[in-house]
């Protein structure tokens, strides 16, 4: 059975009944007005705690709320009413322990109230062994306890606890008063939750819708700038394409002229190669003839040497004949008239011998001249042979050079042909690019028009969203 806390005014005294009723009505009216005011929830709860404590004489009021991060437990909301008559040093220990204590649903007085959704009162908490703050409560000279749930949608969102200096329980009138106070606190919590939810919605709206609108506006501006830049680049690209087409045509014309020149060069190279082959053959034949002539000169030189040897033999024979003719003349002279005929023959023989010596000497001089001429001719022929060898080597080198030049010319001709094909392909691609650029320019102009309209829409939406937020904040 609930009994009244002796701190409450005694309604039983008839002389004070009207005053008590007026005090109750004033309390309820002030609590209701505080709940109606759109002030900060924590401030409103502190004011209601102060009104209740001023009316009841309770020195302590405190609030526990459901942990927003862990629903099944309740933690201190650090909202207090502490009467000035309390010892400030000793009450801090009670306050600190209360704020550090966490109540699971069904555990401790606060957890039991949250689970049962019913108010509970304790006559004297200092003798309650399960009450963790009993010793500190005794130090602060508090005894009676009353706590009630603050309920929204059949769920306990908070528990308010009050402490009195005297031992006792609540009577039915006091219980009804606190039930009304609980309902007004529930209104504050409902408004707080609603405002929190509205704030969250507004923040979400700002971060998503309004942020998206701002991004949309910014994006539309960037899109318009990009479209303008794209259109400018398209025009620039079109001009570049025209220049590329002109350059490609010039390349094609240059390639045609180069192809003609290369064909002429190939023909000249082929003719040079043919003539060089003929030169090599002629040089080779001439070198063979020179070598043959040199062989014949060598043979002729040997023949001349042999003739010289024969001439020397003839000179020796002529000398001997001349000596025989001289001897014959001497013998003929000795013979006198008998040797006169023989002397004539001996004279003729001596004369022939002298002529033979003169002829041999003349022939020897001619042979020497011939041999000297042969030596000079051989030396000259050797020089010519050496030069012919160099000429033959040079002609062969020329053939190698012409071959390399021909290969290089063929490679150039192949690249020119490939370049011509590439230039033609470039011309085709550039023409296709011109068409694409025209279409892209058309699309960029449309995009710029759309982005301008989008920017206007974004501004309208931004204005509407600002008006919406202003209305929500009122």
UniProtKB/TrEMBL annotation:
Residues 212-441 form the Methyl-accepting transducer domain. InterPro entries: GAF, GAF-like_dom_sf, MCPsignal_dom, T_SNARE_dom. One of its GO terms (biological process) is signal transduction. Keywords: Cell inner membrane, Cell membrane, Kinase, Membrane, Transducer, Transferase. It is found in: Cell inner membrane. Its main location: membrane. Gene3D superfamilies: 3.30.450.40, Methyl-accepting chemotaxis protein. SMART domains: GAF, MA. Coiled coil: none annotated. Residues 371-433 form the T-SNARE coiled-coil homology domain. It is a multi-pass membrane protein. One of its GO terms (molecular function) is kinase activity. Belongs to the methyl-accepting chemotaxis (MCP) protein family. PANTHER family: LYSOZYME-LIKE PROTEIN-RELATED, METHYL-ACCEPTING CHEMOTAXIS PROTEIN MCPB. This is Putative Histidine kinase, HAMP region:Bacterial chemotaxis sensory transducer.
